[in-house]
Specification:
The protein has 210 residues and is an alpha/beta fold. It has a single domain, classed as Alpha-Beta Complex (DHBP synthase), CATH 3.90.870. The protein has seven helices and eleven strands. Helix 1 packs across helix 5. It is globular and about 45 Å long. 42% of the residues are buried.
């Protein structure tokens, strides 16, 4: 049965964040709020956690995991970007976007798209996630919390607890979130919008028309 922490959305309790990081450090899988919807997450090195997330979501092997980062300071460690792409990312982060970028060799192969060698990068605009990442000191490996057979992500922590309490180690209740996934933009080659969601697609639609 999962633990359930009610975390203040504007002033997250440091004690609960430390306990959350401790659960992640013991190879836990958590559900947490963001600026788009709730998501599933575990440490980057947690292979068992990644497998549990794949099973829970019934994800195909080619599904991109996302590295949720506090800011762009660690970007070069995990993704290859030129100056133009970096400026684009800087302009549109933090926010409800997921950017697909060419992964570096630092990213475990199991997290990378098997054919295209890409990894998702996301910098959410959400106080709880930002504080959790600060406490962790590293990115969080993550996917949106969309249950098999559903189109929309989950956004109610009480419902998440009811449905998934035996499959997760922790549910962080930060209140309800928008039930809208991120806008996904592929910047690994020519810019392409792969999914429309919470982020304004207009700046990237202009690039796809060039």
């Amino acid at each position: 049965m999962s633990q359930y922490f009610q975390v203040h959305p504007d002033n997250p309790q440091r004690r609960l964040l430390r306990q959350s990081v401790d659960i992640l450090g013991r190879d836990g899988v958590i559900a947490y709020p963001s600026d788009s919807a709730y998501a599933l997450g575990c440490r980057v090195g947690n292979k068992q956690g990644a497998d549990r997330i794949r099973q829970l979501r019934r994800l195909p092997p080619e599904h991109n995991f996302t590295l949720v980062c506090r800011d762009l300071s660690e970007l070069a460690t995990y993704a290859k970007v030129d100056n133009d792409v970096f400026r684009l990312l800087k302009t549109h982060t933090p926010g409800p976007y997921t950017f697909l970028l060419t992964a570096t060799k630092e990213v475990p192969r199991r997290l990378v798209h098997p054919k295209r060698k890409t990894i998702g990068i996301r910098v959410p605009d959400h106080r709880i996630v930002q504080a959790l990442l600060e406490e962790m000191g590293e990115p969080l490996m993550s996917v949106s919390l969309i249950l098999p057979g559903e189109d929309a992500p989950m956004n109610d922590p009480v419902e998440i607890r009811t449905q998934l309490e035996h499959q997760l180690d922790l549910v962080i209740d930060g209140g309800t979130c928008p039930a809208v996934p991120t806008t996904v933009v592929d910047l690994s080659e020519r810019p392409r919008i792969l999914r429309y969601g919470g982020g304004d697609p207009t700046p990237f639609e202009a690039l796809t028309d060039e």
